[in-house]
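Example record

The entry below shows one chain as it appears in the dataset: sequence first, then structure tokens.
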Amino acid sequence: QVQLVESGGGLVEPGGSLRLSCVASGFSLRFAAIGWFRQAPGKEREGITCISSRDTIFYTDSVKGRFTISRDIAKNTVYLQMNSLQPDDTAVYYCQTNGGLRGQGTQVTVSS
């Protein structure tokens, strides 16, 4: 079954960190570009970072310097390390391939 499954979300205090995982099954991430998106209540979905099959990386300005995307081909997993989290980072986070395959999302809540 071709799918993406995210995990690692949760509740964290401002300034804290979380690492999200996106595990692919049914296909290899070696040849795919993967992006992380997020959607907060009442807001449009926002693309925040992506990594190409050649490891070219992009970050949107709102997460640059705080978030890091990486991938482990052996584990067929893409990670999103999130540091210095702020309440504005609260959202459901999704990973998605360039072909449009998307996971179910994982909730990140930043609150004291």
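Notes for this example: The chain is about 0% helix and 50% strand. The radius of gyration is 13 Å.
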